[in-house]
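stuck on this fold:
=====
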Amino acid sequence: MMTSVLTLIAAEGLDDNTLSALRQTLAAAGADCAAADWLAPGRAADLVVRGIDRAAIVAVARPHLAGLPVDWLVQAADNRRKMLLIADMDSTIVQTETLDELAAYAGLKDRIAAITARSMKGEIDFKDALRLRVGLLAGLPEASLAATEAATLLTPGAALLVATMRRHGAYTLLVSGGFEYFTERVRRRCGFDADRANHLDIEKGKLTGTVREPILDRDAKLAYLEEFTAARGLSAEQTLAVGDGANDLAMIRKAGLGVAFHAKPILADMAAFRVDHNDLTALLFAQGYRLDEFTL
């Protein structure tokens, strides 16, 4: 039977007692489970499991780990390290929704944020929601973009994730349903190889209230995943996609490792791996990177 690896990543410390108890439970279910391989002492560990399939491992691990501040996943032991990273920007690589923060300069943050939230939950069409939100910003000074970008913070672990994967040969792409103005700058700050996003129309120093068509949406994110996978001669299994909302669902379901990062329920329920407790370095541990391999 295929060898699997169960990876556990703790936000508040992981101890030998937790791992020993889990190994005993797996053994009682018929598994051959090796001693823990610590990727980072007290933080992240791999358990190599043989003898039962992945569905059975999940069935054992889920109730055992329920309620603990631990993110975990089960995957094949081979080919864990991915050679293409495609990442959403807002509420993933950066901590905020840049369009919502931009709206604050027009006194419309609450109104626009409510539309964003509905879109990210999949309740309204992304393209319609984007056009509506951008339309409300007509006449906003271009200087508001720079002020918003200056206040935008990277998510903890973002730069480490990108730099470490690049050092080990991966290509990294930032793709967003937001705007090029922000992705270009976040790409440089975080070290991505490339970025793709929507173009916000500006005339005479003010936002026109329109966005250039075609709009980059869920289907476009999937298309970029497929395009960059093919261009680099990779298989889908060699890719990693991460995001937080409904607009990321297609690329996350297609990628070899799809990650829902502090995500809305529509995405969290369908992703292979959900990160609810940790920062973006959890994606490195999920690939089997050890703490001493992390690099900036």
Q: What stands out?
A: The mean pLDDT is 96. The radius of gyration is 20 Å. The domain at 4-76 is CATH 3.30.70.260 (Alpha-Beta Plaits). The chain has 13 helices and 13 strands.
